[in-house]
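Weekly structure sync, notes
Attendees: PL (lead), two postdocs, one rotation student
Agenda item 3: pending single-chain targets
PL asked that the sequence for the first pending target be pasted directly into the notes so everyone works from the same version. It is reproduced below exactly as submitted, 141 residues in total.
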Amino acid sequence: MSLTDITWEEFDTYDKVGSPMPYDFRIHNGKYYTFEEFGIASVRRVFEIDNSDFSDYLSGKRTAEEIDFKAQNGYWPPTEEERKMDKKNFLAKHPSSLINVPKNRELFTQEELEELIPVAEELWIKGEGKLPDDYVSPLKK
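Predicted structure, written out during the meeting:
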């Protein structure tokens, strides 16, 4: 839900919530909380968890990690499909790694590769001087 002004010392006095996994969730005055440690100096921040989100966790609809992510960021973590789409969009704008990381090509159709590979090859040559010796173009000849 959001960052709170609750100190670690206050959080530590709140009642621990039994949960399916050993996770440090707390409850106080009907509200649920979690914490995260940030930075090298381990600064602890306490976040409030929306009650309905915590109910989803207890019922198995959400994981503890998802609950923590939403409490800290205000939205659910991206799905695998959303992550793939983000990566695909990034690679479309910066296609060079399509040359040396063949696995990245799996995100694209053959038609998309036919547009991106020439651009990627040109960028690679501009930056490295030549294509890698072991490079095999994915374009149909």
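Discussion points:
- The first strand starts at residue 2 and ends at 3.
- The mean pLDDT is 91.
Action: rotation student to compare against the earlier draft before next sync.
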